[in-house]
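Example for tutorial group B:
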């Protein structure tokens, strides 16, 4: 009997590099290996390719100018650059506003800034669906706010934030607005020139591009202090010889993402919806977390109550199915995800939450395989779970305000 092909549903952790991306990158390791800063032809052709990639990103983001895009070594670096720059350029302002459900790339940084006395941080809570508490946000904004950083879409639940509106509100008090759009870029359409967003972070490996490359969009007119100082690459905004192959790969990935955008929002969303409704129908005591109305088309986060996410993942892995519990960066710790805790999801459910994240590479066969495997996996684990046997007691202990 042949082993069926593995099913990869962990695309919010990382995506497979598209073979067309790899093909576009390869010549830049060997034939076109020049340094973009060099004055000769070797350098010029690489410099040209780097700027062509910038145009592809500009098109995907709907940015007005290609020079608004600064390449970075990934999403984390773009996030750090935006926040640290704002603290320097926004003189007389030392407060940062962010949300409780940001990625550690933001939360760890702002915690450090607060601890070292460099900033006062306001962490805005979310409701049970993961939506920002708008009243708390309004109250936190002041003439002390240097920057607001709120993600475009959450990596665990897919919940989409009203970033356009949040940016307008930030500007009303003279603050800069940054969004970590690492999970949103390439999945939902964007037209930055029609918004007031000042800065936006993206990452190559979340859109079938290479790892270790990303970009920070910086709206024309917004001052930027570089995080990495040195040579004059990227118009003095990010020093260091450009990672040309990765940049070319990111450009190709952006082109492909634009071409597949409609597919992502129809076919991929339909795959996700089919999986979600089939699992909820077949498996009791399970529910979807996040905001069903404003959600990325590729993400389903389902909590299977009274069992451990890690155990579910292990059994899924045995069936050749890859997904994740919490975000990849925090897995390994037994604490349930900070995102689900911020949403007040009860511990007994947050522990058993599984994130299924699709990409354009998934199809109906993948969905069928998961629908077939999951009910047995969950039943087996529940048989062994003391929490499941005593669930009435635990249900009574649930936070009654959680619906
Ligand atoms: C929302 C979000 N922000 C930032 C990052 C970090 O991006 P990178 O891995 O490119 O540093 C991730 C990656 O998991 C993410 O999901």
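The residue assignment follows.
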């Amino acid at each position: 009997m042949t082993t069926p092909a593995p099913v990869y549903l962990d695309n919010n952790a990382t995506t497979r590099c598209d073979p067309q991306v790899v093909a576009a990158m390869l010549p830049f390791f060997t034939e076109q290996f020049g340094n973009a800063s060099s004055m000769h032809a070797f350098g010029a052709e690489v410099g040209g390719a780097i700027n062509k990639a910038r145009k592809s990103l500009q098109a995907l983001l709907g940015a007005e100018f290609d020079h608004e895009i600064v390449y970075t070594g990934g999403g984390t670096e773009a996030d750090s650059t935006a926040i640290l720059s704002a603290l320097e350029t926004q003189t007389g302002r030392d407060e940062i506003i962010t949300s409780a459900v940001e990625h550690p790339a933001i939360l760890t940084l702002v915690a450090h800034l607060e601890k070292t006395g460099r900033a006062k941080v306001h962490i805005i809570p979310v409701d049970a669906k993961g939506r920002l508490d708008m009243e708390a946000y309004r109250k936190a904004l002041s003439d002390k706010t240097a920057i607001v950083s709120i993600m475009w879409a959450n990596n665990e639940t897919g919940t989409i934030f009203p970033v356009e509106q949040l940016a307008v509100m930030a500007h009303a008090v003279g603050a800069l607005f940054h969004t970590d759009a690492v999970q949103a870029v390439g999945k939902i359409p964007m037209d930055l020139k029609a918004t007031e967003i000042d800065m936006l972070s993206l990452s190559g490996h979340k859109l079938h591009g290479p790892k270790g490359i990303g970009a920070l969009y910086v709206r024309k007119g917004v001052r930027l202090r570089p995080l990495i100082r040195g040579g004059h690459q990227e118009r003095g905004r990010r020093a260091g010889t450009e990672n040309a192959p990765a940049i070319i790969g990111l450009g190709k990935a952006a082109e492909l993402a634009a071409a597949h955008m409609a597919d992502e929002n129809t076919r991929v969303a339909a795959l996700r919806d089919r999986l979600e409704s089939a699992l909820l129908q077949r498996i009791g005591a399970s529910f979807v977390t996040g905001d069903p109305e404003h959600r990325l088309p590729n993400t389903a986060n389902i909590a299977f109550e009274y069992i451990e996410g890690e155990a579910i993942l292990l059994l899924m892995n045995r069936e050749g199915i890859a997904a994740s519990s919490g975000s990849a960066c925090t897995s390994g710790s037994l604490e349930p995800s900070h995102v689900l805790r911020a949403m007040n999801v009860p511990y007994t459910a947050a522990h058993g939450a599984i994130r299924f994240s699709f990409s354009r590479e998934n199809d109906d066969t993948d969905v069928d395989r998961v629908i077939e495997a999951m009910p047995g996996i969950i039943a087996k684990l529940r048989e062994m779970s003391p929490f499941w046997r005593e669930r009435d007691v635990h249900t009574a202990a649930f936070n009654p305000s959680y619906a």
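Residues 327-331, 396-403 have pLDDT under 50 and may be disordered. Compare this with the pattern of hydrophobic and polar residues in the output above.
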